[in-house]
Amino acid sequence: MPVLARELESRGLPTVLVTPMPDGAEHLLAPRIVGVEFPFGHPFGRPGDRATQRRVLETALTVLAGAAAPGTRVDLDLAWPEPRGVAYKSWQPAEPSPIVALMLARQKRS
Amino acid sequence: MLAAYGPPRASSHGTLAPMRIDSFAFLPRSFRPLFEKPPRLPGHEAPVWAPFAKRLAEAKVALLTSAGLYVSATQAPFDGEREKREPTWGDPSWRALPADVATAELGMMHLHLNPADVLADHDIALPTTRLAELVQGGVVGASTRRHFSVMGFQQAGLEAWRSETAPGIAAALREEGADGIVLAPA
User: Fold this and answer.
1) Is the dihedral of CA B109, B115, B118, B124 positive or negative?
2) Model confidence over A24-67: pLDDT tens digits?
3) Could you list the residue range(s) of the whole structural domain that residue A25 is in?
4) For B164, which of A3, A6, B112, B152 is 20 to 30 Å away at the CA?
């Protein structure tokens, strides 16, 4: 996604990236970054939690419109409301993705 | 104006120290090395910048998700079957979704995520409803008529994103008259 942000930005389209992995986005030089410490698949919060969805979107728009230079990063100080152990498991698919299954098979063999 | 990331700058009004979240809070520990210093693509070694030229209240904004969403009645799902056969391949195609799409109209093809929460409320990945509210409240000038969806897993296919996906989406965004894009990886 940082790659796509850069490709759009280089075509004259300003971007902001809302991501649970802002360190990686910063390393890949995404122009504007908003970090959220949320599980994967939930960049704007939980289903039905309009207040959090709105807060994340408003922050993203503030950074989109207000950032003065490339590399602007704002992380949101919001804690995920579920226990870490529950959220860590619940975002993952029922079956490992094909690449993860392949990596696990390789680990077993070595 | 928001200052670029770097050491806090002194001013007569004081400084706001940036807080930093844990980028690996929900990632299995064994995945961490893959994401700590992802390799940069050739040509992606320097910053890029397109200035945001308008006031937000006069700007048209588009949204882009990598949750693999599609309109189930009229669009084909992303190609998960090929990914199952070729685990390092990810479908580089994209879909345009109507701005007023309802959650019930959407399908999701993403083999790396549990789709249940996104299919219960797509605003957690593509906040079309929240954006419409901000437009109604005058905070944002307008929403584009269409928003955009890709399938996020592109580990081995980044070159296709550069040569096909990005130019296609950029052309559609220009057609829409977008002044800025909010991207959210799923």
Assistant:
1) negative
2) 999 999 999 999 999 999 999 999 999 999 999 999 999 999 99
3) 2-109
4) B112
Alpha helices, DSSP H, located in chain B: 32-36, 80-85, 116-120, 128-136, 158-160, 166-176
For B25-34, B42-51, B70-79, which range has the lowest pLDDT when averaged over its residues? B25-34
Q: Residues with Cβ < 8 Å from B55, sequence gap 6 or more?
A: A65, B141
Residue B69 backbone dihedrals phi, psi, to 5 degrees: -80, 145
CA distance A110 to chain B (A): 15
| DSSP structural state of residue B64 | E
Nearest-angstrom CA–CA distance, A21 and A33: 10
The model's pTM? 0.93
CB B35 within 8 A of CB A28: no
The residue type of B146 is R
Residue B81 at interface with chain A, using a CB cutoff of 8 Å = no
Whether residue B10 lies within 8 A of chain A, CB to CB, comes out as no
User: How many domains is chain A built from?
Assistant: 1
Distances (CA, A) of B20 to A21, A23, A38, B25: 11, 9, 13, 12
Q: Which residues contact B38 (CB under 8 A, 6 or more apart)?
A: A24, A27, A28
Query: B52, B65, B79, B161: which to substitute to probe chain A, counting the most A Cβ within 10 Å?
Result: B52
